[in-house]
């Protein structure tokens, strides 16, 4: 509830709070910028419309014998109508253009990005690191006779659900595809989503600066266990990551997981 | 002339047989209305089931496949039966009355359209038989939708037939309504003194005519892929799942204007009548409606911002999407200006209409960021989207439909609804809806993905899910009150006058309820006729 109030306060002072000085995740900082701009404009527009509306609603009530009929001559005003055509037009053109500029930055992975291949499958993710190391994060499913407890349904047990290690402060470019239905890779802290489409390779990039554990969720409906199709990113300092990467390839091998390369499908254009 | 009309038996006095084989637009209108409302209730009950499941994390009462079935039916039924279907009801009952005609242009095609809609309803009920559940979601994306069975799509054929049959009904309706308005208006009613409700309906039906074939083709290919193993959408054999998304949204984005333009029409009718003032900026209202309908066809890829389409397409459709905010804004500003120097009567339909305007504003303002790809990437397929379309559909459209029910109830049934109960229902609905839908917006900003049967125990998420569930039950209680008020009115309400709102529009010049053949003689339309004026005679 306290956060809820915080959000309402934020909407009142959208511009007062500066963008976080030490950015935890990218391109979340860019998203936060467009978010605050939108929130400010939306709150102002809401006030500009709602306050006069409420004022008119109270002032111009029907009163028997006094005000029984509205002003029949007040039918329109070209000046006013032009005003509320042109001002909104300018606002949306500004929003679209600023959004365009931010989006261009958001889509451009930094040069030194680490490339990670991620394949979605029903229901889980497979991460492939540049040296071939693989990590699988598959959904924890209930069975007919056994349900997981809420705190266990989203736990990393190290067997079917493994941590995907990510170096802190290093940009990661994720190449996505799917081996069955459409899934969608959402890195919560970084505020980016991209579909994993069978037969295509799509991409997104992100960077997390603060070590810790971060959520990845599937955001495109993909059947029964869509809601448990998560992964946990374990963000660790670069040296620790390098050590982990050179270490034993995870013992777990899932023979049914087959990575379909986009190139195998001639009909598909690889979207970059 | 009005006083001279002899007393008649009301339009609804007819045997069951006559009702079934009727081609009377009023009876067909009511049949659409009853069917739509029944399915609205069914979809609402399923949503309450989902809300109970989501009250706390972990599996509670439902299996995931049951949740997914509930959600698929909730989405498909509430969109096709309620948000689209309910306007077929209003259009049928009102168009001929508003333009002074005896019936629609093609009464038998009209009846056929209804019975196709009824057939779709039967198919929807078949999905309730165990083993026949559909779990495709209302969007039915392949490859998932081509994979039959419990973990994936369920029974794809039923999903496809629902689209085909409701699509047929939509096209039959569209041909009929468009022809009726083009060819059967009383002399004196032209493009610029037609009811705004009719403009909304006709723009919506033009969209249906142009758009439905696209989605019908898409689901037909889905059917062929599923059962005859063609490969339109199978990437392993050269197909492309994203093609489906394009064909689907080419219709289904404009379809949101099929739902909302008639709602705008109702708001305009109710606001001008109960504020006792002509609608402000009538001409810009008309232009705005048609601009929305037209531009609406150029924005569909905003549903595909993360589907893997090229970035330049996203940018172009980001501009076109935001452009739609302009005509939409014009409508809102004009409604507000209509209130200036008016004489507002706070009767139930007016409360619902004003509520619809202020809630639609939130729906519109939360829609804008979804049209900006830089914003959308963080909230795509999250509860923010769910909150946005519930503000637009669950509130603006639904409140407008109820405004329409209360507003035309005296004309339809010949009786007034109970005012106190009507007003109470509005306040309960508005409180419940805002708790439910505003919580959806916030939890969406915090990342909660859409279409989730379960969620991790993140504290702030749990709080907001509980808030949603409380809101949902308050809302459901409000809807119950509203329906009670309507039914009570129809059965035992006071006798309604012919023109309780003193509206200038033609339908109010008929007796309440109207006789079977509407106008005994063609109504005279004055030279300066304007449907949105205060009744002068
Ligand atoms: C009792 C009132 C309602 C409640 C409690 C409710 C609740 C919900 C819930 C819980 C979801 C699923 C969210 C998810 O898991 O992603 C949902 C989805 C949806 N609702 Fe409602 N809703 C209500 C009324 C309405 C109304 C009146 C409309 C439209 C006129 C509507 C349209 C939709 C649509 C289109 C979806 C998306 C379905 C999909 O994702 O495939 N709902 N609603
Ligand atoms: Cu999924
Ligand atoms: Cu859309």
Describe, in plain words, how this protein is organized in 3D.
- The complex is a heterodimer of chains A (272) and B (537).
- Chain A has 5 helices and 11 strands.
- The model of chain A is unreliable at 9-21 and 250-272 (pLDDT under 50).
- In chain A, the strands form 2 sheets. In chain A, strands 1-9-6-2-3-4 form a 6-stranded mixed beta sheet. A 5-stranded mixed beta sheet of chain A has the order 5-11-10-7-8.
- The two termini of chain A are 42 Å apart.
- Chain A has 272 residues and is of the alpha+beta class.
- Chain A has helices at residues 2-12, 28-59, 78-107, 150-153, 238-246, and strands at residues 25-26, 114-121, 124-128, 134-138, 164-167, 172-178, 183-187, 192-196, 202-208, 212-218, 230-236.
- The longest helix of chain A is centred in the N-terminal third of the chain and has 32 residues, at 28-59.
- In chain A, helix 2 packs antiparallel against helix 3.
- Chain B is an all-alpha fold.
- In chain B, 65% of the residues lie in helices and 0% in strands.
- In chain B, helix 6 (196-227) runs antiparallel to helix 7.
- Chain B is globular, with a radius of gyration of 23 Å.
- Chains A and B meet through helix 1, helix 2, helix 3, helix 4 and strand 8 of A and helix 3, helix 8, helix 9, helix 10 and helix 11 of B.
- One copper (II) ion is lined by residues 253, 256, 302-303 of chain B.
